[in-house]
């Protein structure tokens, strides 16, 4: 009985800790997007989340690390401890044998992720010019994007059905360019394209660049 109670208590503590972390990330996202990175203080995030500032420093370390946690949350759409590579939509892309269909599936998922995460990405990108603590976070985002496109390029190249003369490195670099938040910013945020139009354009652009 004691062991069962101890396990139950530990599960409850973990659940409460996860809920507090989720509240902090949600509060930080709202404040970052409304006030900007520099103007948002840890104390303000703590008040909005109903926790102590000390607990935020203990859980995240720095405000820049909190911004990265916000990005990770919004790009995934949840706080489930499942790596992006193991999520069903990524596995569906990997399992699809036709490169055009593979690109269409990827573009669908990317458009949803950009819709959720673009503001945070741009906040980190632009914020590093006035707060150098964000430079490392931005470089990490770029490295993660490059790693993802390296894997997708290898997957596409392995189909043997891409445009003749394209090697995996060029495929990676073309993917890296087309999925950049800068293109989403130009077309959706600046020019007002609906998300469906952006998705269709991205699907067609990738297919034209990579497929025969």
UniProtKB/TrEMBL annotation:
Residues 41-60 bind DNA. The keyword Endoplasmic reticulum does not apply. GO terms for molecular function: DNA-binding transcription factor activity; transcription cis-regulatory region binding. The keyword Cytoplasm does not apply. It comes from the Bacteria. Residues 18-78 form the HTH tetR-type domain. InterPro entries: Homeodomain-like_sf, HTH-type_TetR-like_transc_reg, HTH_TetR, Tet_transcr_reg_TetR-rel_C_sf. SUPFAM superfamilies: Homeodomain-like, Tetracyclin repressor-like, C-terminal domain. This is TetR family transcriptional regulator.
